Amino acid sequence: MRLITKARITAVAALMAFAALAGIATGQQDIGLLHQNLNESQSTAAFGIGKILDESSTASLTAAEINANPAAVVTLAKGLEARVVTAGVAAPNVDMMVPWPDNADPTHLIVCNEQGTSAPGLQAIDLDTGAAQTILTGITNCDGIRMTPWHTILFSEETSNGRAYELIYPLGVTGVHLDRSTGVFSGGTGDCAGGTGECHFAVRSALGRLAFEGFAVYPNGVVYYGDENRPANGTQGGAYFKFIPDSLWTGGPPISTLAASPFVSGDVFGLRLGKRVDSGSGAIDFGQGTQLGFGTWVLACDNCQTGDTNLRSLTPTLKLTGYYRPEDVDIDGTALAAGNVRFCADNTGNEENDQLWGETVCVSDGTLAAAAANTATPEAQLLLVGNPGLAMPDNIAFQPGRGNWIIHEDADTTYLAPHNNDLWDCLPDGMDEDLLSDGCLRIATLNDLTAEWTGGIFDASGQRFWVSIQHNASGKGLVLEITGWK
Q: Which of 364, 368, 366, 370 lies closest to 383, judged by CA?
């Protein structure tokens, strides 16, 4: 027998009220529209905002218009407000970012700039003044970046042979250069002998090489990440990986030397879904067609740091589960608060060529202790299925407090009809029987068909949200702070 709760009765009553509005009483029913209208009616209670945006903007401002009023490049749901953090000062392709020195009361954003080796790769942006200071050049396509539990910065490159790197004391170093061919840092100003800055950095070969974007860095130093790769000629797309340090982080004060980082050494495992064993042939049902459900973490390399291992090349050999361009990753803070591992990630898809709208997949990996011991059975399930309205999800941000997910579109904005990229606010799955988000609302849209939302991240309260407007028509770096959630 299913328990009929007061909440369920209230929800049914609301549905019945909306049924009349949707024409169900006259036999012209659209249950999907009914559910969408119900979510919109709960925009304040469930999402913390006022009236949502009914559609994407089709406007496309000029460079002159954006330079004159940078905030005009976005239209926000009622109640939300945007403050320009920096415009025309930071590097032009600011992507992912982290608040520093913490996410409770930060003074700066440490940001990746997604350009080539001659451009600024890593910068510090002052949240009060908008001033930008270049920390590092020489890196290419800097993208994935996170603060570690031991108070350093993990950052990386989004290119097929990309590396991960670690930075200590980011506000105490400027002007360092990386030689990608050797992995050697040099020059700049910092706290090294002779006043240079190279000792602030380290290559983290232990995490392997691939096209990095998102990281889920857990309190014990276990890290999850994907390879932004698409399928090609029958070879699977990008896989998801898990790094387990040889020395787990057990807490304590911030480290004072990079030699003490858990990222110095460890093992990397790849995700392979499918566990059923055929009783006759002994075959296990991993491979094309098994994209969800239970799986196994397969050892990709033991002490990757000794071989500078390219994990992408191992994906077909190990028969790992592939997805269409894994993008950003974030930790489910609600699961973490309960001592469990669950992260969600966007697989962006391809709108224009394939009408593959993309998806958001969430992976569970037991408790923190089980994940570190690699004894849990991983499970992947969909949170969101893309569609023509919410296409090609790229970055993803968990909202503390509410537990919602902010999905950033990076769609083909001229396909079928002009439509700007949007920010979507998605509920977690509730008590219903499916595992999908209980609904998403459009909370912001761009007014520039060339631009995309990138790198959005919340503070600890879930009330301040920083996001970059990348590839905007001005050709200049633009970072906004969005507030106003109730």
A: 364
Matching residue, tokens 């990138």:
454
Distance CA 137, CA 135 (A): 7
pLDDT in tens, 263-298: 999 999 999 999 999 888 888 999 999 999 999 999
H/E stretch holding 45: helix 43-47
Alpha-carbon gap, residue 382 to 436, rounded angstroms = 6
CA 188 vs. chain centroid, Å, equals 30
Cα dihedral value 252, 257, 260, 266, nearest 10: 130
Task: Report cis status (omega within 30 of 0) of the bond before 92.
Answer: no
Rounded CA separation 252/113 (Å): 31
Q: What is the pLDDT of residues 157-204, one digit of tens each?
A: 999 999 999 999 999 999 999 999 999 999 999 999 899 999 999 999
User: How many helices (H) does the chain have, and how many strands (E)?
Assistant: 8, 28
Domains of the chain: 1-41 (no CATH), 54-483 (2.120.10.30)
* Six-digit token string for 401: 């407090």
CA distance linking residue 307 with residue 202, whole number of Å? 16
Contacts of 447 (CB under 8 A, 6+ apart): 57, 59, 60, 61, 72, 73, 74, 75, 420
Instruction: Give the global pTM.
Output: 0.93
